[in-house]
Amino acid sequence: MKGMKITFVMLMGIILFGFNNSEAKVMGTQRTGIQENMDIVERGQNIIAQSTPEKIKEFNEQKDGDYSFAQDSVVAGIKEKLPIVIDKFTMFNDISKDNNKLIYKYIIKGLPKDVILLKQNQQSVLNTIVTLYCGNDPNVEALKLIFPNGVSHNYYLENEKIMSFDLKPSDCDSK
Questions:
Q1: For the chain, N or C: smaller number of CB within 10 Å?
Q2: Burial of 109 by CB count in 10 Å (0-12 exposed, 13-18 middle, 19+ buried)?
Q3: What per-residue confidence (pLDDT) applies to 30?
């Protein structure tokens, strides 16, 4: 099950640091002040052009505490990169949200169900998830705020859910 631990560490790294959609900057190029000012003006014009009456109405109708847009953005950013083969046994296959909870779906192959379901292996996976979720990483802290009902890690073998671990931000209070 050491491979499962590595799987989770790699997965969290991909999730937490993998959705930077900003355009890459070419190193070593010098930009003049005029070019930078033109970029700022262009960005401002783009923002103004996007501020349509429909967008203003949509913004005004959004309720405080409604994180659905941020949640949708996180899910969409991760979905673009899926599926991701984590290790020779595990593939991160899907991500979704439901009722302010982030839901991960993993597919497991190449291991017997009985091995996966050994109590010590399940505890090892859970310990790894808790350590990552309850750590001090600012990206995970942001996810906890955006998804106040927590996360659910679901593992499937031959289209059957065989393991599921749910964590809420309050589960970290004693950590």
A1: C
A2: exposed
A3: 59
